[in-house]
Each structure stands twice: as C-alpha cells, then as structure tokens.
Specification:
The chain has 499 residues and is an all-alpha fold. It folds into three domains: 184 residues, Growth Hormone, Chain: A; 53 residues; 232 residues, Up-down Bundle (Growth Hormone, Chain: A), CATH 1.20.1250.20. It contains 18 helices and no strands. Helix 1 packs antiparallel against helix 8 and helix 3 packs antiparallel against helix 9. Keywords: Cell membrane, Membrane, Transmembrane, Transmembrane helix, Transport. It is found in: Cell membrane. InterPro entries: MFS (IPR011701), MFS_dom (IPR020846), MFS_trans_sf (IPR036259). Pfam families: MFS_1 (PF07690).
Length: 499
C-alpha cells in the first residue's frame, strides 16, 4: 500500500472512536441512571460535557498542532483519550464519569485537528486531498450515525463501561503505528498558543449551562444560580472584548458582520441541536416507555442517522441547481415538518410512519448542515476561510452540546408538570419522582407496594409521552419560524466580501 494511503488508514482509525463517542451514550441514559443512580441533570452533564469542552478547545489545539506537528499532537491526544476511556470505564459515580468525559473531549480536541492536518500535509495533490477529505467526512458522519447502535449492542451484552473499553486497544494500536509509519513533522515554534482564551470561553459556557440546569431544581438557591449565570455572562463578555482587541484572535468576530455567515452559523447550530436533542428524547422514550433494549433502540433510530449522511451530498447537488436560499429554506422547513409528524406519531404501533419521519429529519439535517457550510464558506473573504471554518466547527460542537441541554430541560419541565404521583408516596420521594422519568422509575423500584410502583411507572410513561408531543411541536414551530427568516434574509447566492 502507498504510504500516504496507509497514513490515511491510521487517520481513519484514530478519528472513528472520536466520532462514535459523540453519540455512543445516547442510548445509555436508562442504563446509567440505574447503574449510577444519576439524576436528570447529572445525565445531561455526562452526555453534553464532551461537546461543550471540545467546542472551546478545537481552535487552540489546532494551533498547537502547527507548533509541534500533527504527529506529536495525535500521539498526545491519543494517550489522553486512552487514559480518559479507562477512567470512564472504571467510573463508580456520576462525578467521576463527567470528569472522564471532559478528559475524553480534551484528547478528542487534539485528535480532530491532527487528522485534518495529517490529510493536508500528506496529500499534496488536490484531487487526492479532496478524496481523502471526503473519506474523512464520511467517517465523521458514519461514526456519529453508528454511535447509538454500537452503544446499544455493547449495553445489551456487556457492562456499560464496555462503550469506553473498546477505545483502549484502538488507541494502543494507533500510537504504535504512528510511531512506526508517520514521518517526523516540521515544527513552527513561533506559532502562538492561546489556551488561556479557550479556558475562559469554556468556563463561561459551562457556568451558563450549569446555571440553566440548576434552575430546574427548586431546592437550589436562586441567589447562587443567578450569581453563577451572571458570572458566565460577564466572563463571556470579557472574552469577546478581549478577542476583538487581540491582534491574533482565536475567533474572528469581524466575520459576524456578514449577515449570510451569521445565518449559516444559526443553521449549523439548529441542525445539530435538532438531531442530537431528538436522539436524546427517542433513546429515553423507546427504552423507558416502550421497553426496548438499548440495541433495539439504537436500531430503531438508525434511519435518521443514515439519512443525515445522505442529505449532505443531495444538498450539494441541489444548491448548484436551485441556489442556496431555496435549499436552506427547504431543509429547515422539512425539519419542521418531520418534527410535527413525529410529535403525532405512535412509534411502536406505526413504526413505518416513524421511520419515514425520521428519514425526513435526517435528510433535512444533512441538507441544513451542507447549506450552512455553503453559506459560511462562500460569504467569508478568501483570506479568512480558515477562521470561518473554525467558527463552523465550533458551531457544530456547541449545537450538539446545547441540543442535549435544551431538549433535556424542556423534557424535564414538561414531565414535572404532567406527572401525577400516586397517593401513598410521600416526602422527598414525590419530589424525586417528579424530576425525570429515570428518577420516577428509580423511586418505583424502591417502593414496597407493587401496586403503587405500577401506578407510578404508568403515570411516568404517560407524562413522558405528553412531554414528547409538546417538545416536538414546539421545536417544529421554532424551525418553521427559522425557515421564514432564512427565506427573507438569505440571498439566493452568497458572495464573499474581499478585503
């Protein structure tokens, strides 16, 4: 095999677990809630900490790769990823697992730019580079698509920690292969590294998310919640001001003056929020309400993820013929339509209708992501294409993180409002049962009277189905409004402003 294609094989091998880990825990929510006695808020942290931390670290880690070469960056990232996988697999409580997932994100934020840099430096011919990038992109989409399926299979046959154990042999094999095959990389020690800015950004985002999630628990102090939320806002304002004055900003905020680029970012955020949030909702309903195993739930959701991989190429073909505005509006409108259909759908009794709606959702997300890329990259000046691409990457990761946050919060609020706790359950157990469906199931398992337990489970299932309907209808309405905004403000063809 030609050496460059061998290097591409290594790139694929190291990128696959990173992309799978973004979605592998989506079907594990019921299992983790029982195994670790996790609250609804803790479950959200376990899942979304990965994307939120990655969003802030991708840019400085890319600069670190330029400084020391992608070979060193990849090896360090793989070592951290392997250690984090071991910590996650051995976690005995939710806090340990949350920190392990954050450490996984640190390793992944090094691996991801190392893979792109590896392709750029290995494939000097433009045609071969395009082919390699296409394979890389397919691995990213495919890994995220099969994540719930991989998680479902492993959870159906092994301990939940197995979803992390599988990373370790891949990491070991890849590190050894990189040391043997990949040549020494040129280094640029003059390249600035701005990790402090990234840490400020991450802390600000996590403070805001923490304040939002904490507000769901009525037992938490309102003063503390507001203080943390305000601290997050002030830190974010400080970050923006610091970046705008910087001669070498991590994020080029001047690009946000471009209306088309801003709409592209909104589309990227919305598309990721939609598909990731929907996965979270589906994974819980299929297992808690309908009694499916993790593997059955992963298989049930597979059409949506596979369709999202098809939507991108389809959108590329459509944009070249119909123009960006029509395709972007159509993609967002199709997402809204699919959410309306899924809100009214009985998944178990009418699976074909559910799959049809999920395929439409997957296609529309793929279309929206391609349209967002087109809007961002064609409206950015040529000399700022790298900055625009970095902003797009951050939008994807933030969208994935906020999809878990927003859908999780909406489900929790509506579930808490709709559940009727049976008479006979008293005290703190009532409040716990009202928090989320997984906590209601946990309370039911602690009750001595089987009749009370059955009543609580039935009430929790009904409340979650009601929450599912309302959340998807609200999402459909918001996406419909966004489709109108895109049509009104996005030109048919985006043109870059050249400086």
């Amino acid at each position: 095999m030609n050496n460059k294609w061998l290097i591409l094989s290594l790139i694929i091998l190291m990128y696959l677990p990173v992309s799978i880990d973004a979605t592998v825990l989506h079907v594990a929510v019921p299992t983790l809630s029982i195994a670790l006695n996790a609250t609804a808020s803790e479950l959200l942290w376990i899942i979304d900490i990965y994307s939120l931390v990655m969003a802030g670290l991708l840019l400085p880690m890319g600069a670190l790769g330029d400084k020391f070469g992608y070979k060193i960056l990849a090896i360090i990232g793989l070592i951290i990823f392997g250690i984090a996988s071991l910590c996650a697999a051995l976690s005995t409580n939710t806090l340990m697992l949350i920190f392990a997932r954050a450490l996984l994100a640190l390793g992944a934020s090094m691996i991801l730019p190392a893979t792109l840099s590896g392709i750029r430096n290995t494939f000097l011919d433009e045609k071969n580079r395009s082919l390699a990038l296409g394979i890389w992109s397919t691995i990213g989409v495919g890994g995220a698509a099969i994540g719930p399926l991989v998680g479902g299979y492993l959870l159906s046959h092994f301990h939940w920690g197995s979803v992390f154990w599988i990373n370790i042999p891949i990491v070991i094999i890849t590190i050894i292969a990189i040391l043997i095959i990949v040549p020494k990389q040129p280094q640029n020690h003059q390249q600035p590294w701005q990790i402090s800015k990234a840490l400020i950004f991450i802390v600000a985002i996590l403070m805001l998310v923490y304040a939002i999630k904490s507000a769901l628990n009525i037992n938490n102090s309102l003063i503390v919640i507001l203080s943390i939320g305000l601290g997050g806002v002030l830190l974010l304002v400080f970050f923006v001001k610091k970046e705008r004055k910087s001669l070498s900003p991590m994020i080029d905020f001047s690009l946000l003056k471009q209306r088309v680029l801003v709409i592209g970012i909104i589309m990227a955020l919305t598309a990721m929020i939609s598909i990731v949030g929907f996965e979270l909702l589906m994974a819980q309903e299929l297992q808690f309400v309908h009694g499916l195993t993790p593997l059955q739930a992963g298989l049930f959701m597979l059409p949506a993820m596979l369709a999202s991989g098809v939507g991108g190429p389809l959108a590329g073909w459509l944009v070249s013929r119909l123009g960006l505005r029509i395709v972007a509006t159509f993609g967002m409108g199709l997402s809204a339509f699919s959410f309306f259909g899924l809100a009214m759908c009985d998944f178990i009794n009418y699976p074909l209708m559910a799959w049809a709606m999920m395929i439409l959702l997957g296609l529309s997300v793929g279309v929206a992501l391609l349209a967002s890329t087109s809007a961002i990259m064609t409206s950015a000046p040529a000399d700022k294409s790298a900055s625009a691409g970095a902003i797009e990457g951050m939008a994807y990761e933030l969208g994935a993180g906020f999809g878990i946050v927003l859908f999780g919060i909406m489900l929790t609020l509506i579930f808490s409002h709709n559940i009727t706790v049976p008479v006979g359950i008293t005290g703190d157990l009532v409040l716990q049962a009202q928090n989320s469906i997984n906590e209601a199931f946990f309370v039911a398992s602690q009750l001595e009277q089987s009749e009370l337990s059955d009543q609580l489970i039935a009430s929790a299932k009904q409340a979650f189905v009601s929450a599912h309907v309302i959340v998807l209808l609200m999402s459909g309405l918001l996406l419909s409004g966004l489709a109108v905004v895109i049509w009104l403000f996005l030109p048919a063809k985006a043109v870059a402003i050249h400086h």
